[in-house]
Design goal:
The chain has about 80 residues and is mostly helical. About 80% of the residues lie in helices and about 0% in strands. It is built from three helices and no strands. The termini are far apart. About 0% of the residues are buried.
Length: about 80
């Protein structure tokens, strides 16, 4: 009887461990732990004005990337192979 309980407990612990590992791998794959600049930004932008400037620069960067992607898409649409 105690052998059956041990086998069941090993099975349950293996299942729980596998579930935890799957959750960890999912979190890593989806970027749940990606925050490399958290502490650097906290020290760098320690007042409101610096933080506003950083946000404005980030918005400009995103706008440039969007414009670059649109130009690339436009070039793809207008592409005509040589005869």
């Amino acid at each position: 009887m105690s052998d059956n309980i041990i086998i069941v407990m090993i099975g349950i612990s293996t299942l729980l461990g596998a579930t935890g590992l799957a959750a960890l791998l999912w979190g890593v794959k989806t970027g749940q732990f990606d925050d490399q600049s958290k502490f650097i930004d906290a020290a760098r932008y320690d007042n409101e004005e610096d933080l506003r400037d950083a946000v404005m620069m980030d918005e400009k960067k995103k706008a440039r990337q969007k414009k670059k992607a649109e130009e690339s898409e436009k070039k793809k649409k207008n592409y005509m192979p040589a005869d």
